[in-house]
Design brief:
The complex is a heterotrimer of chains A (257), B (187) and C (498). Chain A has 257 residues and is α+β, with helices and mostly antiparallel strands. Helices cover 25% and strands 9% of the residues of chain A. Chain B has 187 residues and is of the alpha+beta class. In chain B, strand 4, helix 4 and strand 5 form a beta-alpha-beta unit. Chain C is an alpha/beta fold and 498 residues long. The chains are: A alpha+beta (257), B alpha+beta (187), C alpha/beta (498). Chains in contact: A-B, A-C. At the A-B interface, helix 1, helix 3 and strand 6 of A face helix 1, helix 2, helix 5 and strand 7 of B. Strand 6 of chain A pairs antiparallel with strand 7 of chain B, so a sheet runs across the interface.
């Protein structure tokens, strides 16, 4: 019941933004770059649904309109640093530097969390994101395909001074778009990737620093494409924002499809 | 089930106006419901008015978490006597599934924690992630039931702002102790 | 009063038998049981903002005799820059250049280091300075997301010339993209004064395209792991230190080179053609070696070399693993101007043999030809001019700049009977090489010409068009698509007893 009220409020409040599309992913056992434990076991990803596209400026504008405490000029500093949504012409307007169909960036983890909650969703976990991102147009796991890696590495090589493309790039096997080549994306457990700030310390026996298994070892160090993503997420605090970082949301699998 | 929790979260958020008296960088801006070792519910923001020493742990942790408790005790002991009475200790569990209030109560007794100032608490999984993000603590559940996590002691002032942090566990951190004394000396 | 007097006398006595700094060090060690070597006490005076310079320039000496607090601010900028003529690469830079800015402090200084990550960057970065004593060399304390700044402070305990580089995962890629530079920690008494100081740093680069393949080239991870570089360069680009950008000095000057090797993979055999190093601080250490021809600089290492100039000319800095110099770009020039000194050297200038064109305008005709070819309007004249520039330094090394070859060793190209007989055979020779006996202009040659596999179709066509139209050869033209056809066909077996 509360959901319907909120949905109605959202529609009445903004009128214009259609509901986001979520596509189902079957999940399964998966060789993650971050192993489940010290013995480098595969992880199990439960079935889930993922937003087919990252959240856009238009969608985020609708959100801050109905949830004004997340506006740039009202947000508590503990939830986002000063550069939050700085590229928007004003706290409640989009413009040439922030077009409606572009993915929203300069958003903190707290803001992303709140947005996802507003559409009865949550941020994907690293494993869920990794699972979805391993697919290309035809394979569930394309990570050993040099073409897949090169596509990603070439995004890293492209300069950032061009305006962001709009969402809606080529879909992968599941119908999910823009996981690569557009923006970095927040995940729910971004702060749990446990890469030591100096990545050469991977076997450092400083066990007092990380209770449990010691810092987890990254499998597959040759897969630079994924390593870079782990490095970027590990460098962030929850209130940070960057020009190249956006997000999308996830939901549990739909039991009544 | 999670849908309702999510909706509840948003409603709770919408309902809680950012308190006029809470500074923008206070972690109490985040609505967060916890339950202590005696089964009593409370909000994170209820801890305002008094400075807090906060950390996160879990009871099945074999190695470092007992050291976290020891370090907190030692840090308390090293405070000036007048200061010691003014600060509370809050330890929140990473592991709400296994760390029930009963289990927390057990640990409370085992470690002979001071009932006047210590609180062991648990909250839901989503709030654990939020609190860890606010405190800058990293953690990850491993397949075998262990949780790999960083160990941090955080000092909050009476308004919930982070004043000092230390990652030194085992021995007390003199700079951290000095920061606590300083915070408690101020009127 | 007595104490100070005796300390003063002891210092004077020690100074008489040891350099001043070692005396201060020894004295301090004797006086304080907990003394840390290189720690000259707390910083004195006002904090100093370090002046950093872009390569190949070096900041002025500190001219200080006391430890100070030095504030260093360094920004990481990811930017697209030329790596060769018509070729660009996305470099990740410290301070906007490859190598990064040069930092100069004094032993005992307390350095407050600010690392900034430009908000337009995509990647997080950090810094490991080899002169830092502390975890990760600073890397653990400087991991910085785009749009943020990190600060950490260290005391420079050891004098020397040290590499700094980014150490963010994947480290090899960050280094391969140009994230390295040098920090000089001066000895307390300063370095002896010289006339010129320059900053040169070698690095290996890995692109998916071949050497000199045009356009924006991405990083190639496989080649980097296999340690098969496409380019080996001084200061991040082919031609960075040649032509109008060559290093400059006059005769009768002492030149000091701070020469580093960022790697990521290769070790450098550093040599200056035509000069001998009077002083080498091998591996950047304190003890000096003298009279050295070629010095090894490890990956992630650096050295200081000094020499005195006597004769004017172009002196070529190379990695003496010589194919890197001529086929991958590891080549720089120091141009020395002044009066000749025939008593010391009487012969021709070095540059007319090696690289006349490379000491001058950099391959401008090649760029012109590339543009014309792309527009579909390449003329024979443009091909000849481009071919002439490419001929120098590649073909001229054996066949000589005038095409005369070397008697009994390398056949001539000038008025060549082989070329006259079948001009298009040259395409196959260039692409697949030629071994075994061959007769040119009535003389026999029996040598090995390696296949010039580093040349692309355009370059082969232009070089051959130049050769066909030079030194009395029959003329005509070779086009890029002809070359492509020959390249695709299998190699003809070397003709025996031709």
């Amino acid at each position: 019941m509360p959901m319907r009220v909120l949905a109605l409020a959202a529609v009445l409040g903004t009128g214009a933004v259609p509901a986001a599309e979520y596509v189902p992913l079957a999940g399964g056992t998966f060789a993650s770059v971050l192993p489940a434990d010290a013995n480098a076991a595969d992880v199990a990803v439960a079935p889930f649904r993922l937003r087919s596209q990252p959240v856009t400026n238009a969608e985020f504008l609708a959100f801050v309109t109905t949830h004004p405490q997340w506006r740039r000029d009202r947000i508590a500093r503990v939830f986002a640093q000063a550069s939050y949504l700085q590229h928007w012409p004003s706290a409640t307007q989009l413009g040439t530097s922030a077009l409606a169909p572009q993915p929203v960036t300069q958003v903190s983890w707290f803001a992303a969390q709140a947005f996802c909650a507003s559409e009865q969703a949550r941020l994907p976990t690293w494993n869920e994101w990794e699972f979805a991102a391993a697919a290309d147009g035809t394979h569930v796991d394309a990570r050993s395909d040099p073409v897949w890696r090169e596509q990603i590495l070439s995004w890293y090589a492209r300069p950032s001074d061009q305006p962001l493309a709009a969402v809606g790039g080529a879909a992968n096997l599941y119908g999910v778009r823009d996981l690569h080549g557009l923006v970095w994306e927040w995940v729910d457990d971004f702060n749990a990737l446990l890469v030591a700030a100096d990545s050469r310390d991977q076997n450092d026996p400083d066990r007092l620093k990380f209770c449990g298994a010691g810092a987890l070892n990254l499998r597959d160090r040759e897969n630079y494409a994924v390593l870079m993503r782990v490095a970027l997420l590990s460098s962030l605090q929850a209130s940070d924002t960057t020009l190249n970082l956006g997000f999308r949301c996830a939901k549990p699998a739909d039991l009544n499809p | 089930m999670s849908r309702y929790l999510a909706a509840l979260f948003v409603l709770a958020f919408a309902a809680t106006l950012p308190a006029a008296e809470l500074p923008g960088d206070s972690i109490y801006q985040m609505p967060l419901a916890l339950v202590d070792q005696d089964g009593r519910g409370f909000q994170l923001a209820d801890r305002a008015e008094r400075p807090q020493l906060v950390s996160m742990f879990y009871t099945s942790c074999p190695y470092v978490c007992p050291l976290i408790i020891d370090t907190l005790k030692k840090t308390q002991a090293e405070l000036a006597p007048a200061a010691r009475a003014k600060v509370d200790v809050l330890l929140v569990s990473f592991d709400p599934a296994r760390d029930t209030p009963a289990r927390l109560k057990q640990v409370y007794a085992e470690r002979k924690l001071d009932s006047a100032s210590w609180t062991l608490a648990r909250t839901d999984e989503r709030s654990v992630r939020q609190l860890a993000a606010l405190l800058g603590i990293q953690y990850r559940a491993l397949a075998g039931g262990d949780i790999s996590h960083s160990s941090v002691l955080v000092l909050l002032d009476a308004h919930g702002r982070v004043l000092a942090r230390t990652e030194r566990i085992g021995a007390t951190d003199p700079d951290f102790v000095a920061a606590v004394n300083q915070a408690l000396a101020a009127p | 009063m007595n104490m100070r007097l005796s300390v003063l006398m002891a210092t004077v006595l020690l100074a008489a038998i040891q350099p001043a700094a070692a005396a201060a060090d020894t004295l301090a060690a004797a006086a304080n049981p907990g003394y840390v070597h290189g720690d000259f006490g707390p910083p004195r005076g006002d904090p100093i903002h370090a002046v950093l310079t872009s390569p190949p320039n070096v900041p002025a000496p500190t001219f200080r005799n006391y430890p100070a607090k030095v504030i260093v601010e360094l920004e990481v900028i990811e930017k697209e820059l030329p790596i060769s003529e018509g070729v660009t690469y996305m470099f990740w830079t410290f301070g906007g250049t490859v190598p990064g800015s040069f930092i100069r402090v004094r032993q005992g200084d307390t350095v407050e280091f600010h690392l900034k990550n430009n908000p337009n960057n995509k990647m997080p970065h950090n810094i490991d300075l080899h002169g830092v004593t502390g975890p990760g060399g600073g890397a653990a304390s400087s991991f910085t997301a785009p749009g943020h700044e990190s600060q950490f402070t260290f005391k420079a305990l050891n004098q020397g010339i040290y590499v700094y580089h980014c150490a963010t995962a994947p480290v090899g890629m960050h280094v391969a993209n140009g994230m390295y530079g040098l920090i000089l920690i001066e000895p307390p008494e300063g370095l002896p004064s010289v006339d010129r100081e320059y900053y040169v740093m070698q690095g290996d680069f890995y692109t998916t395209g071949k050497y000199r393949e045009k356009g924006l080239q991405p990083f190639d991870m496989e080649k980097a792991i296999d340690e098969k570089p496409t380019y080996v360069l001084f200061n991040g680009a082919e031609g960075a230190l040649t032509g109008d950008k060559a290093l400059a000095a006059k005769t009768n000057q002492t030149v000091r080179l701070f020469i580093g090797n960022g790697g990521p993979n290769l070790v450098s055999s550093f040599h200056v053609i035509g000069e001998i190093f009077d002083r080498v601080q091998q591996e950047g250490g304190t003890h000096v070696q003298e009279n050295v021809q070629t010095t090894l600089i490890p990956a992630g290492g650096a050295s200081i070399v000094e020499f005195h100039t006597e004769i004017p000319g172009s002196y070529v800095l190379v990695d003496h693993s010589i194919f890197r110099a001529f086929n991958k770009g590891a080549l720089a020039i120091l141009k020395v101007d002044g009066e000749p000194n025939k008593a010391i050297y009487s012969g021709k200038e070095v540059d007319s043999v090696y690289l006349a064109e490379r000491a001058g305008a950099n391959l401008a005709a090649v760029t012109q030809a590339t543009k014309a070819a792309a527009a579909g309007k390449l003329t024979k004249d443009e091909q000849i001019k481009a071919g002439q520039q490419l001929f120098a330094g590649t073909c001229s090394v054996c066949h000589q700049a005038n095409g005369e070859g070397l008697a009994n060793v390398f056949p001539p190209l000038a008025k060549s009977s082989l070329i006259a007989e079948d001009p298009k055979r040259t395409i196959q020779i260039l692409l697949h090489g030629l071994t075994g006996k061959v007769s040119v202009n009535g003389k026999d040659y029996n040598s090995v010409m390696p296949p010039m596999s580093q040349l692309n179709d355009d370059e082969v066509a232009n070089i051959l068009t130049f050769v066909l139209n030079s030194w009395g050869n029959p003329g005509g033209r070779v086009e890029a698509d002809e070359v492509a056809k020959v390249r695709a066909a299998p190699a003809v077996a070397p003709a025996a007893g031709h």
